[in-house]
Structure prediction request, 190 residues.
Amino acid sequence: MTFLYRRRHPDGWHAGRGFTLFELMVTLIVLSIGVAIALPSFRGVLLNSAVSGQTNDLVTAMAMARSEAVRRGTQVAVVSAGGGADWSGGWSVVADTNRDGVFTGSDEVMKRSPALDSQYHVFAKNTAGGSDGRVVFNLNGAADAAYDLNVCYPTGDAARSRRIQVRASGNVSSFKGTSGSAATSCPAGG
Prediction:
């Protein structure tokens, strides 16, 4: 028969089997150094994710406008909230319900996107020289002109920004980087 005996500390107390204060402090220091190294790259991941999300929201709005134009047999537009080339104030998908070709308050707003955070920008350009403040799709799904839109990375880095291209056929594509875009260049530093 075997008996297990507890070993006693010389002072009479049981010896602890946990971590010493020194070991805990070293662990915390190593952990804080790791976090300090990882944080800057994590910020970049968050910014890239936000730019991609805004690009996807705008591409989705374009796809919605195009499909609704075909389904309803009327013009549907994605309209800049500010009415001009700067779409940073948000945008709306509007159906021309009264068929007058003017997208005003009397027409049906199907979707509204809020203004972007102040560090992000979206710029559009109608490559045929028409209005930069709206992309109009007709009942066949074609756009009224070709457009370039730049969704800008906060630092203005063109390689990290996104380009949306709307062809006159109505096809919408997005690309990483804004090279070759006719839209306003992204401002440096947001």
About this structure: The CA atoms of residues 110 and 128 lie 27 Å apart. The beta strands are 76-80, 91-95, 108-113, 121-126, 134-137, 147-152, 162-166, 172-176.
